[in-house]
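Researcher: I'm preparing a figure for a lab meeting and need a structural model of a single chain. I don't have an experimental structure, so a prediction will have to do for now. The sequence is pasted below. Please return the structure as tokens so I can convert it later.
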Amino acid sequence: MIVIQLLHTITLVSPLALESRLVEFKRTAISSKSQLPCDILIERHVWIRLRDPSCEKRRLSDTSKRTLLWSKESLLPLLKSIPLNRSTQMTVAAAADAFATEDEMGIGGWIKLENNLFWFSHIWNRQELQPFLEIPKSLQRYISSWEALAQLCILLLVNQKCSTRPGIISIQSGSDNTGAEANINHGFSNTEVLSDIIKLVSIQQIQCNIFLNIHHIPGERNTDADDLSRGRITKFCQSSRVLIKLVEIFNPLPFPRYINTAVQWDPDLHANAKHFFFGRGLG
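Model: Understood. Here is the structure written out token by token.
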């Protein structure tokens, strides 16, 4: 292990840092001094992970403890049984985006099911959101939360359109927000507002047997979802629009999908996500 004093000239994290041990530097595990670069140029903050020398155990914050307790009480009861036979799987291509100002936010996204495209576009203000979420700050401060909310709507849209499909559905969905991407894939967040939305995502994934796999796409390639989130919908087919109410998002009715593992689906009908994320829009 390396004493953090080696990096004292770079950044002083806290009084604890001088006695701590460095275990990760720039997301890379560190076990010896030789793994550190000789010249470390610091132009921005550098991510490091420290180990408290006074404790060999990881200490959980109160928020983390509450989240783990919620998972035990809310998620585990949903996992009542796991079929031993392998289920068929369907893959869906999708993408979503969000924007926000001081008192207004918008979400938009699209999914491709075989040869059909469906999309949603909604803009809500603070007053409309307050019955469902506590939002003490500017809505723009919670942009990762709205990005996650847009992905949740992708899941609800797929569930609505695939209510009679058998087996597991995997959504390969694009996002240009790394915060929403990481927290949905990890299924965990301690951030206000975002943590509540991640909990909803976790519950819906288990109840609907539909799972989000979020991967990053550059913002300049996510133009269709960006237009939808900002209400620019004139170029989209209006008959393919799906309206989603806030009450349906935050107080969803139980609507399990029919699961029949005996039915086989032609893999050629499955959506190829990469083809639609790069170079092809919805226009």
